[in-house]
Design brief:
Elements lengths: L2 E9 L8 E3 L2 E4 L3 E2 L12 H6 L9 E5 H9 L13 E4 L11 E4 L3 E8 L4 H6 L3 H5 E3 L5 E3 L3 E7 L1 E3 L4 E5 L12
Parallel strand pairs: 5-6
Antiparallel strand pairs: 1-2, 1-6, 1-13, 3-4, 3-12, 5-11, 7-8, 7-13, 8-11, 9-10
InterPro entries: MoCF_Sase_C, MOSC_domain, Pyrv_Knase-like_insert_dom_sf
Pfam family, one: MOSC
Protein name: MOSC domain-containing protein
Length: 181
């Protein structure tokens, strides 16, 4: 079983691209993060609300591995935890390689279910020119690889703090690959 840890946590009550670091997140089952603009049972991302405001919120909590931020820094982009709008920065778990429906057990009580990949948008390019191209890559077989993190829904709530352990529980077979949500 894969395991890792939480590096940083962040939230923002306003719809801004970057979040604000905080010492702790209060995560609420079925809703998301208390005090975050993306909390809710229905979609909260403005572009998706414009299309269909009643669709379920499959993007309650956004996670990015610190290894992705490290890779972007090596490419010359000055990014750190919370800069790309993630709520939880992780370490030592290849989040994008996990199948849809995987459970991330964080700290004492929190359980997040992976719903899919974050779809990089023009806001990434507006934040730092060239960054959009850096988070969208092509594999050797021509497949598009998205490196903007994963999205989850909250199955069980509680607190998430930097240093909390993360364990992964895979869903039953067959495993479904992550797609944009």
């Amino acid at each position: 079983m894969e395991s890792g840890r939480v590096v940083a946590v962040s939230k923002d009550a306003e719809h801004r691209f970057s979040k604000r670091s905080t010492p702790e997140l209060n995560v609420i089952a079925g809703l998301g993060i208390e005090g975050d603009a993306h909390q809710g049972t229905t979609v909260q991302h403005r572009s998706r609300v414009a299309v269909n405001p009643s669709q379920p919120n499959l993007r309650q909590v956004h996670l990015i591995p610190i290894e992705t931020l490290d890779e972007l820094r090596r490419k010359g982009f000055a990014v750190g935890p919370a800069d790309l709008g993630e709520n939880v920065t992780t370490e030592s778990i290849d989040l994008s390689a996990l199948p849809r429906g995987s459970l991330l057990k964080i700290g004492a009580t929190v359980v997040l279910e992976i719903t899919g990949l974050r779809n990089p948008c023009v806001q990434i390019e507006q934040f730092l020119p060239g960054l959009l191209k850096a988070v969208v890559d092509k594999g050797s077989n021509g497949d598009v690889i998205l490196k903007a993190g994963i999205m989850t829904v909250v199955r069980e709530g509680g607190a998430i703090r930097p240093g909390d352990p993360i364990s992964v529980e895979l869903p039953p077979m067959p495993h479904l690959p992550l797609e944009r949500v």
